[in-house]
Specification:
GO terms for molecular function: ATP binding; ATP hydrolysis activity. The protein is of the alpha/beta class and 511 residues long. It contains 19 helices and 22 strands. Helix 15 packs across helix 16. The longest helix is centred in the middle third of the chain and has 16 residues. It binds adenosine-5'-triphosphate. Adenosine-5'-triphosphate binds next to strand 2, helix 2 and helix 16. The site of adenosine-5'-triphosphate has 20 residues, from strand 2, helix 2 and helix 16.
Length: 511
């Protein structure tokens, strides 16, 4: 009887990892990882930045080879040399950065590279329709991907892996870019997939969401699995404490520090694209010393362009931008930096880091004309190295050393380093685009404390974030951007994420 029961359990295990280990120079990314994921469940993997979650998922998806350990899929031992082998075994992965071709249709994107499944014609179209209907994915096969919103693009990514026959789907922080309504829709899709017997593995730093959707949660700490819990048995705070291995400090509350001294002033800023479409439409606001202005918006509504216009990476077609009374509308990015603007970019790989350079050289990036990384016209190597050490300590950047390349750091640790760098040298204005994207809850709280402390000292902040709790928790005022226009003004003390979500999608009334 027992033997039969065991067999049943074994047959239901979609993924079984035993003794997985993976080393990188100076780092043990994974060791002694044991993980069982039952078929037809949603299984969340949580852990601090650098705990080893992505490495583990990359091993399961064949992007990286483990140094030791075994993998079984549906009870059969496997060893993947590439993602295509993982896909053939029924394992698919949806990355946080979507990999779709904008100028192709949904159908073309799904079929591209998987022509062997159902060709590229009527059969392929039929299969895509079947999949969309079965799982309640509401997407038109003939729409161009560039016309889709963020949530819809994510559905296309999921359809892509389903189309390739995936039964196990790994999702890397799938909610990071979604508004609350889209998160609800994604979770409905995931529940539907689960009902049909799919297995979903889900990395997330948003612990309340993990508790809402997961059947099981595995905690990874310092490279190894340290526990497995049922969502009903723990609170988000207890889960965070399991991740860290100790009690978390209580979050700070803060008094308003807003002054009446203008720092950043935008008047009628307008920006058109090559086709004459308004990306920014008559944007006006003032941010004062000690004030954080939060901008909420569904990705693609002008927030990126707004930040880049203030940073001087795009020239407005109309209006003015001034900093502490100086007109900077035509100034170069370098002049703006020298005038005291810190910049946490949205895309850390494109604009924030030289991935193949050591961390200390990354300290110099964007700061090559100022102390401590420059002395006169020369780069001050010693100064940059010392300040890198300071940032690593102050922002708890987990790295073997400051000579490690930026690429070798986990995503969250790269982000912590950028925040530390941009907060250096007492900027007067911080342009912060998603400053805590990808960082764990402990590091998020620490970054918020750093920003609040700088605000107390007079820092003005333009905060763009997809994390509505962050906007509400940090901002003095929140504005919504929709199709390039600023819409409502919201008080963070009374607004809810749902209210903001409605305004962001244009579903709410104009304020
Ligand atoms: N290609 C690599 N080369 C060197 N070290 C690496 C590489 N990839 C990951 N590491 C290291 O392995 C450890 C685990 O990183 P991993 O990306 O798996 O963490 P994570 O839990 O996904 O973190 P985050 O939440 O920040 O994304 C980190 O110390 C990281 O610096």
């Amino acid at each position: 009887m027992t033997a039969v029961a065991n067999e049943v359990v074994a047959a239901n295990t979609a993924v079984r990892l035993r003794g997985i280990g993976k080393r990188f120079p100076g780092v043990i990314a994974n060791h002694d990882i044991d993980l069982d994921i039952e078929a037809g469940t949603v299984h969340a993997i949580v852990g601090e930045n650098g705990a080893g979650k992505s490495t583990l998922m990359k091993i399961l998806y064949g992007v990286q080879k483990p140094d030791e350990g075994t993998i079984e899929i549906d009870g059969a031992p496997v060893s993947f040399a590439s993602p295509s082998e993982a896909i053939r075994a029924g394992v698919g992965m949806v990355f946080q950065h979507f990999m779709l071709a904008d100028n192709l249709t949904v159908l073309e994107n799904v079929v591209l590279g998987a022509e062997r499944m159902h060709g590229i014609g009527a059969r392929a179209r039929k299969r895509l329709r079947e999949l969309s209907q079965t799982y309640g994915f509401d997407v038109d096969p003939d729409t161009l991907v560039e016309d889709l919103g963020v949530g819809e693009r994510q559905r296309v990514e999921i359809l892509k892996v389903l189309y390739r026959g995936a039964r196990v789907i790994i999702l890397d922080e799938p909610t990071a870019v979604l508004v609350p309504q889209e998160v609800d829709a994604l979770f409905d899709n995931l529940r539907e997939l689960r009902r049909e017997g799919h297995t979903l593995v889900f990395i997330s730093h948003k612990l309340d969401e993990v508790l809402a959707i997961a059947d099981d949660v595995t905690v990874v700490r310092r490279g190894t699995t340290v526990g497995r819990v049922k969502p009903g048995d723990v609170s988000a705070r207890q889960l965070a404490e399991l991740m860290v291995g100790s009690e978390l400090p209580s979050p700070e509350t803060s008094e308003s520090t807003v002054t009446d001294q203008p720092v950043l002033d935008l008047a009628g800023v307008t920006l058109h694209d090559a086709a004459g479409r308004a990306l920014l439409d008559d944007i006006s606001f003032t941010i004062h010393r000690g004030e954080i202005l939060g901008i909420a918006g569904v990705e693609g509504n002008g927030q990126t362009e707004l930040v880049e216009a203030v940073m001087g990476m795009r020239r407005p077609t109309g209006g003015t931008i001034s900093l502490v009374g100086d007109d900077l509308t035509q100034a170069s990015t370098r002049t703006r930096r020298e005038a005291g603007i810190g910049y946490i970019p949205e895309d850390r790989h494109r604009h924030g880091l030289l991935l193949d350079a050591p961390l200390w050289e990354n300290r110099v990036l964007g700061h090559q004309t100022r102390e401590p990384s420059a002395r006169g016209a020369l780069i001050d190597r010693g100064g940059a190295r010392r300040d890198s050490e300071r940032i690593v300590t102050a922002y708890d950047v987990r790295t073997p050393s400051i000579d490690t390349t930026a690429r070798a750091l986990s995503g969250g640790n790269q982000q912590k380093f950028i925040v530390g760098r941009e907060m250096s040298g007492e900027p007067v204005l911080l342009l912060a685009a998603h400053p805590t994207r990808g960082v764990d809850v402990g590091a998020q709280a620490a970054i918020w404390d750093h920003i609040r402390e700088a605000r107390r000292q007079g820092l003005a902040v333009l905060l763009v974030s997809a994390d509505l709790d962050e906007l509400i928790g940090l901002s003095d005022t929140i504005r919504v951007i929709l199709r390039g226009r600023l819409q409502g003004t919201f008080d963070p003390l009374s607004v809810t994420p749902q209210d903001l979500g409605s305004a962001m999608t244009g579903a709410g009334e104009d304020h």
